[in-house]
Amino acid sequence: MTAIASPSIHNLIGGMWVTSTSPAGIELLNPATGEPLGNSPAGSAAEVDAAVQAAHAAFASWRTVPAADRVQYLFKLKSLLEVHLDELASLITIENGKTLAESKGELRRGIENVEVACGIPVLMQGYSLEDVAPGIDEIMVRQPLGVCAVITPFNFPLMIPLWFLPYAIATGNTVVLKPSDRVPFSAARLLELIQETGLPDGVVNLVNGGKAAVDALLDHPLIRAVSFVGSTPVARHVYARGSASGKRVQCQGGAKNHVVVLPDADQETTTKIIADSAFGCAGQRCLAVSVTVTVGEAKDWFRDAIASAASSLKVGNGLDPNTQMGPVITHASRERVVSLIGQGADQGAKTIVDGRRTNGNAGAGSFVGPTVLDGLPAQSPLMETEIFGPVLSVVHADTVDEAVAMIERSAYGNASSIFTSSGASARKFRTSVSTGNVGINIGVPAPMAYFPFSGWKGSFFGVMHAQGRDAVEFFTDKKVIVERWPKEWSRKF
Ligand code: NAD
């Protein structure tokens, strides 16, 4: 049984749900069961144009709605998301495969962004100074940009749209959302709930599709800003093409995250947290740990401990409350991960836990079990490859400096963590490591909604990040007014 009401996938244009007339895109299967869910349309420039025109038409009046009134819709949305939490979590699990607990966790983080955006009447304020010269005052105000495009990946079907949407509309913009063509149902349900808030038609629009839809958004002259989250090659493309057509662009890309384990780390907690970080969401998190670097004697205990933790995880359908790890998103993704595990062995690693034969007790699902590769050589290509599956490499360094240097060499810079009981080691790590998000005894250092979701090097292209104050900066233009009102020009009363 699915919680998907209909296999049809519609676009939302100016408040109307319309059937896509674009060519068929990809066939969607429940990743845990292989059950068909529907077909994603490929998307077209004409459909994108219709959505952008609707958003553009809505902008003129939406931008004049007082900020305090705009956020009333978000208060309602927060309440609707809470009421529909279980239903939305099931939907995410059915189309993405993650466990119900993980789906609820993702929703929590999404709702947090709705809550923060409710503070826009304060967050959006500018500043002013009287008498910058005698009788002259200067004022900075923030104004919305216009139509903003939001393009999201498959791994967080609801949280990532909510990294951007609430801030974009609260600041007075209108939006065209293009969700991942691999998980279109959760976003459609989110937009139905947004409609239930009574938000004026056209303020938020939805257009489905893949590359054709993305490129049409990047080229559309009425789109002022693009928020993108996805893999690094596509992030580069979106950043280059969107910037070339004069848009403001923020692109969060892929990752290869390292965690450093020092000999003085608490063994039990460290192992548990790293296992969750590597294998949670079947490793399909941009903050998942991909490489553990043991320092000194940590090598002696960590390898066996993580092997035992990985082997004991229960893999299966995420709807089963006993499941600890679900499938990867598609059969193609499974084949890719399985092939990369093989390459790891070819490149010199020992496969101490091998998930290639795991079937999750459901023949047609796209399961691959937790896998641990030991001793992958530093120069092997897999050390630089984002696997995006439940595969952890364990490598060794003699010192913290050597571990930090390994991270420095990575082309990615999304996140890194250290596990230690030494404040001095932790401080040295956080001040020198070259990643945008850092965990100290934390395995998935996901920033709260009131902090920017950072990311450096090949993991981020742009200036302003998602969430919090960065989002307010991204979705607004600063206007500076310098004014003089000489007494002698005024009529005397
Ligand atoms: P993806 O790059 O394949 O797709 C992202 C979006 O781009 C989707 O909407 C997709 O339809 C579209 N797209 C795909 N190929 C395209 C192309 N050639 N041209 C134009 N648009 C295209 O990413 P994914 O597989 O959906 O998501 C997983 C990736 O996202 C991983 O690399 C992961 O690390 C990354 N991610 C990063 C963050 C972060 O905050 N840095 C967060 C989540 C996911």
Structure write-up:
Its EC number is 1.2.1.27. One of its GO terms (molecular function) is methylmalonate-semialdehyde dehydrogenase (acylating, NAD) activity. InterPro entries: Ald_DH/histidinol_DH (IPR016161), Ald_DH_C (IPR016163), Ald_DH_CS_CYS (IPR016160), Ald_DH_N (IPR016162), Aldehyde_DH_dom (IPR015590), MeMal-semiAld_DH (IPR010061). Keywords: NAD, Oxidoreductase. The protein has 493 residues and is of the alpha/beta class. The chain has two domains: 10-253 and 459-480, Aldehyde Dehydrogenase, Chain A, domain 1; 257-440, Aldehyde Dehydrogenase, Chain A, domain 2 (3-Layer(aba) Sandwich), CATH 3.40.309. It contains 15 helices and 22 strands. The protein has helices spanning 45-62, 67-83, 85-96, 100-117, 120-123, 159-170, 184-196, 211-219, 232-244, 267-279, 298-311, 331-346, 400-409, 423-432, 468-474, and strands spanning 10-13, 16-19, 24-29, 36-41, 127-133, 136-144, 147-151, 174-178, 204-206, 223-229, 248-252, 257-261, 289-295, 350-353, 371-374, 391-397, 412-413, 415-419, 437-440, 456-457, 460-461, 476-484. The chain has a seven-stranded mixed sheet with strand order 14-15-16-13-12-18-19, with helices on both faces. Helix 7 links the parallel strand 8 (174-178) and strand 9 (204-206). The longest helix is centred in the first third of the chain and has 18 residues, at 45-62. The radius of gyration is 24 Å and the shape is globular. The N and C termini lie far apart (76 Å). The model has no long low-confidence stretch (mean pLDDT 96). The structure holds nicotinamide-adenine-dinucleotide. Residues 151-156, 178, 180-181, 210-211, 214, 229-231, 234, 237, 252-255, 286, 386, 388, 414, 453, 455, 459 line the site of nicotinamide-adenine-dinucleotide (NAD).
